Amino acid sequence: VQLQASGGGLVQAGGSLRLSCALSGRTVSNYVLGWFRQAPGKEREFVAAIRPGSSNKYYSDSVKGRFSISRDNAKDTVYLQMDSLKPEDTAVYFCALDNLFRPSVREDNYYRDRRTYDYWGQGTLVTVSS
Fold first, then answer.
1. Contact of 85 with 14, CB cutoff 8 Å
2. Biggest alpha carbon distance in the chain?
3. How far is CA 105 from CA 32, 58, 101, 127, in A?
4. pLDDT (tens digit, 9 = 90+) per residue, 69-117?
5. Are strands 67-72 and 57-59 parallel, antiparallel or unpaired?
6. Are 22 and 121 in contact (CB under 8 A)?
7. Which residues have CB under 8 Å from 55's CB, separation 6+?
8. If you placed Cys at 19, which of 48, 60, 80, 120 could pair as Cys (CB 3.0 to 4.6 Å)?
9. What is the pLDDT of residue 118?
10. In angstroms, how far is CA 80 from the centroid of its own chain?
11. How far is CA 108 from CA 4, 48, 56, 89, in A?
12. Which of helix, strand or coil describes residue 28?
């Protein structure tokens, strides 16, 4: 299983970026996919997650209303659309996969916990200037 994150870069505050995470070795429609981020000197934190079927999406309070997670099943890719970016969004962003096949719905904390995820991409750097 491999996850390849891309799309990071330098953007001014208020701008937008779209991150992509290409999955190989699994079919993206059957698994929970998540995005996390890690700023310098800080722990890795949850950003967003999406369940199979795309009807259930989860966001951290800090990005809710600004970020949107989605998937393209034909391309086995998950996206993170990031709008109204702020300097505090600056971090390395990681995509991750929970290796349970079509899991039942769990409590919200399950998707926010990095220990849920079995496979991780290499990360892509997002820098937001003020």
1. yes
2. 42
3. 10, 12, 12, 34
4. 999 999 999 999 999 999 999 999 999 999 999 889 899 999 999 999 9
5. unpaired
6. no
7. none
8. 80
9. 97
10. 6
11. 25, 11, 10, 22
12. helix
C-alpha distances (whole Å) from 75 to each of 8, 21, 57, 78, 98 are 19, 10, 19, 9, 18
Q: Which token pair is 64?
A: 């809710």
Give the angle subtended at the CA of 122 by the CAs of 116 and 123, to the nearest 5°: 90
Q: What is the pLDDT, as a whole number, of residue 54?
A: 67
CA of 99: how far to CAs of 26, 30, 92, in Å? 9, 9, 22
Q: What is the 3-state secondary structure (H, E, C) of 37-69?
A: EECCCCCCEEEEEECCCCCCEEECCCCCCCEEE
Q: Counting every residue, how long is the chain?
A: 130
Contact 56, 100 (CB under 8 A): no
- CA quadruple 42, 37, 117, 81: dihedral, nearest 10: 160
Q: DSSP secondary-structure letter at 105? A: P
